[in-house]
Specification:
With 336 residues, the chain is α/β, with parallel strands linked by helices. The chain has two domains: 203 residues, 3-Layer(aba) Sandwich (Rossmann fold); 101 residues, Helicase, Ruva Protein, domain 3 (Orthogonal Bundle). Helix content is 45%, strand content 16%. Strands 2-5-8-1-9 form a five-stranded parallel sheet. The chain has a two-stranded antiparallel sheet with strand order 3-4. α10 packs across α12 and α13 packs antiparallel against α15. It is globular.
């Protein structure tokens, strides 16, 4: 069995095991798994009760990884996340300092309703997400390997919330929208959760397997034409540049960062593996565009006033940036 077949077999194992507990949401599960194997973090947005917390907890159990959850609230402080130094006194009266690690020292971290905490507390996760370490009282403390952050936010109850700053949003590999279940899925959810029987999962992968999967992702070839298409998409989102698309000029204040380009290319690599393809493709870049870019674009006042969503803007830009360099996009209504 070659690396690609081994990867596909492990992904199928994960999907099946998660499916024993999580009903439907196949697209959401695949997006979360894509972030996991790309060594990125994910922001989940959806109304309460859609199983976001259940999905994260189930995933950690399927991987046999340590899981912790932080409920973000307005009074949460950075020390509640990172930890603090305590002064302890021994039996003989001697005192010493001991570091009490916070919940960030784990392998899978659920940051629940992250937009309910103040910006000061939200930013406590920045260094952890990017550098995989935290600095406390000038001392750097490395985090566990692997370290995977899944944050959630509720799009309905915005009263008293604090929107994530652009610098932190950019640290999330994907922003995934969790849809409401269909009537059949809802019936299955109600049946499972109101009866006597309960489903349990077992570890089907381990940390070493995950490390190998992440290495395989990085080894997927990316043709120069695919790379340049991803870069042209990013440049097309910047309204101040000559390469900006008409949509970007009309609807955006700023475009996606270089991390957006990295995400498109890595997303295309993962897409290739999950679809049994030997190379990253333009189709893979397009498939990654919505979750990779929807949180990295700054909508203009006019776009917000007209109710033009970030997803609609991304789809329009996809239609305006030609797949072949130097060619004009002709299909104005085309979307991913």
């Amino acid at each position: 069995m070659n690396d690609h077949e081994w990867f596909a077999e492990r992904i199928d194992r994960l999907r099946k095991e998660i499916g024993r507990v999580v009903v439907g949401q196949a697209g959401v599960v695949d997006r979360v798994l894509s972030c996991l194997v790309a060594d990125g973090h994910v922001l989940l947005e959806g109304v309460p009760g859609l199983g976001k917390t259940l999905l994260v907890k189930t995933l950690s159990e399927c991987l046999g990884l340590q899981f912790r959850r932080i409920q973000f609230t307005p009074d949460l402080m950075p020390a509640d996340i990172l930890g603090t130094t305590l002064l302890e006194e021994e039996a003989g009266g001697r005192r010493h300092l001991r570091f009490q690690a916070g919940p960030v020292f784990t392998q899978v971290l659920l940051a629940d309703e992250i937009n309910r905490a103040t910006p000061k507390t939200q930013s406590a996760l920045l260094e952890a997400m990017q550098e995989r370490q935290v600095t406390i009282h000038g001392e750097r403390k490395p985090l566990s390997v692997p370290f995977f952050v899944l944050a959630t936010q509720n799009p309905l109850e915005m009263e008293g919330t604090y929107p994530l700053p652009e610098a932190q949003l950019d640290r999330f590999f994907y922003k995934v929208l969790v849809p409401f279940p269909s009537i059949d899925e809802l019936a299955d959810i109600v049946s499972r959760t109101t009866g006597v029987a309960s489903q349990a999962v077992s570890p089907v992968l381990h940390a070493d397997d995950l490390a190998r999967m992440r290495r395989i992702v990085r080894e997927i070839p990316v043709d120069a034409s695919v790379m340049r298409y991803a870069l042209r998409l990013i440049l097309g989102t910047h309204p101040e540049l000559p390469s900006a698309t008409p949509t970007a000029k009309r609807t955006l204040k700023w475009g996606a960062s270089p991390r957006g380009a990295q995400t498109l290319v890595l997303g295309a690599r993962v897409h290739a593996l999950m679809n049994h393809q030997p190379n990253a493709s333009i189709a893979g870049v397009r498939a990654s565009a919505l979750p990779a870019l929807r949180h990295r674009l700054g909508r203009s006042f006019e776009a917000e006033a007209e109710g033009i969503s970030a997803d609609e803007i991304v789809n329009r830009i996809l239609a305006e940036v030609p797949e072949v360099e130097g060619r004009v996009a002709l299909e104005a209504g085309r979307s991913s």
